[in-house]
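Hey,

Quick one before I head out. I ran the complex with beta-D-glucopyranose overnight. Inputs first:
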Amino acid sequence: MKPFKILCLALLVPSILSAQKNPATKLPQLGKAPLKSVVAAMTLEEKVKLIVGMGFNIEGIPPGMLPPVDPADNVAEKVVGAAGRSHAVSRLGIPTLTLSDGPAGVRINPIRHKDSTKTYYATAFPVGTLLASSWDTALVKRVGVAFGREVLEYGIDILLAPGMNIQRNPLGGRNFEYYSEEPIIAGNMAASFVKGIQSNGVGTSIKHFAANNAEFNRMNLNTYVSERALREIYLRGFEIAVKTAQPWTVMSSYNYINSTYTSESKDLLTTILRNEWGFKGYVMTDWFGGKNAVAQVNAGNDQLMPGTTIQTKEVLEGVKSGKISMEQLDKNVTHILNIILKSPTFKGYKYSDKPDLKADARVSRMAATEGMVLLKNNDNTLPLTGTKSIALFGNTSYDLIAGGTGSGDVNKAYVISVDKGFANAGYKVDATLSSTYKAYITDQKAKRPKPKMMFLAPEPIGEMPLSADLLKAQANKSDIGVITIGRLAGEGGDRKEADDFNLTAVEQTMINDVTKAFHDNGKKVVVILNIGGPVETASWRDKVDGILLAWDPGLEGGNAIADVLSGKVNPSGKLTATFPMAYADVPNAKDFPGKELPGQKSTNPLMGNPAEVTYDDGIYVGYRYFNTFDVKPAYEFGYGLSYTKFDYSKLKLSSDNFKGKITASVLITNQGKVAGKEVVQLYLSAPHKNLNKPESELKGFVKTRLLKPGEAQLVSFVLDARSLASFNTATETWVAEKGDYKVKIGASSLDIKKSEKFSLANDLNVLKVHKALAPASEIKELTK
Ligand code: BGC
């Protein structure tokens, strides 16, 4: 070769090599080039990959039951045990996002690849229902801030939480993950939680959008529900959360609403969520939710999770055949890319895998004490001043339920049981009783059948029979008897009335025998309810002296329970769901959770057979029903006791006539001997001219600061036009009807302390919306 040619080659080779090594240099890169040019540079296959997740294997589900995953996606997980991942398009600088459950703490595998020298435990925070029972949005945000830090430090981009469906029926299997039967509570709690989590620069996914109020046949349940009930009850909380907190993502639910899967509903995901509410993030399906990938894409369900090869094929074919327009696909892709741009992974955040679990445990304990509800306290049984020794009964006294099962579960390093909590607080827990219970629990756990799938809640262990001699001895030597009643629930099943909502016969016997033995000795008995949803209390509550509703309080539960029972913390939680006298009193008791359609079978047992449910209770959910139809509950919505007493005075409205806004203020004074916080609630009774109205509805709530004895706080509420309005289906408008409105300030929905009236001179059309999600035929709903 001539020297000149050699020189030319020598000059060329490095540039050829560098172009080969880095072909991306000329391609638009996410975050550097305009988003439009990145989308334009994506091939059809890349766009489809981005909107279909990378798939995953669920532990415990036999192979073949889940749809196949692309072998190319079988690459090592960045965060082992996270629920999902999105596809990367490396040549355009688009990274993989990692998505992880769940509402009570980061749910990832604590041990990776059998190497226990390094662990990845997460904090189990109190469940959603407990957090909501604090009625303290600042507290919920604070929990979110701590929790979101764990999300960030474990390398996760989006937390699949909060769960915020309405607790329509006490038996809902996932009620513990959710906040309330009241959308104003659900919406405000979710918004605060989202703000807290997202303050760390990670995302959330408010779920399950919408009307996912039961676990029964959940992927095949058709929910018939009126537009009004949807707008006022089942969508309202989501609306508040979207408008005030802009979650990065929304997760559509498994169920159908009026015969369309929510993940395939353009009405829900585009018309309402994006166009009416201004949602700016992206929508993902629930895991394997819906059936028709093309319909999902067209509805504006931007991402199909966890993603299957079948979906990839269907979407590709859908675009090629013109069933999905490129414009629609680009919209979905853009929604996802906008979120990727904000993600810690995109920003190259160097996560530590070492969140401050000690600090978060303190937040978890503090939050748990704020949401526990004191249901009963005869003759100041509580706090336990002067008590030294405790006889502790009930399995869950020694084996506390920190949270629920399924995707709401958390892999925590420990759980502080009630006995441990009491011991830490300096009480003497009877050691003989304790070791008898512990041996019994170990033995029974070894004997019980394994759940059909690892995901599902195991069978509960029956309570240990207590002999007369044992009870006599305990009542002699201990100052007080404490009984814990526990219930475990979770994804994949609803609770039952018998032996779950209602106490079991053995539990009733335990309460009878323990109270008899202790009362005969002039000693008292307190019950701790370690539950995720309401249980029957009317048949046994008169027998005991005190009841603390501790909910599922997270990993520090035992310490938090001791904090409240000892009086270190004065309880200030109140109920965000009605505790009925009997299950039959619940308006939808007969139809819940729905019924299977005769002769229709699903080929996949995971789906459940086709089934339906009609929400003929309409807007009369929870206290809206009990208070309108005068059905006496065991403990009403908003109820909760304190170790002190509060006086309500000086209720003042800013005007007698509503002109766009009214402010109500009221003075709350601590009249007792110890410091405490009060949850002050504003209910509104509206005139009913053309529309059926509940007796009253919650329109605002404030939790006071910790008030010292004698100290007072003026709290105020603002009522805007929307607070006065109900949804008029005929005109698709939120309307405030003219007439007299009564503002009721209460310590609960039935314990109204002060009220005042104002009037509205003319009907007010507050907000016109679209006709959307209408049932094919009118639903005959309960009316007053
Ligand atoms: C649950 C979701 C969860 C998802 C991922 C589904 O079964 O319904 O709440 O986020 O799984 O684990």
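The chain has three domains: 42-59+79-112+119-340, 364-585, 644-768.

Talk tomorrow,
K.
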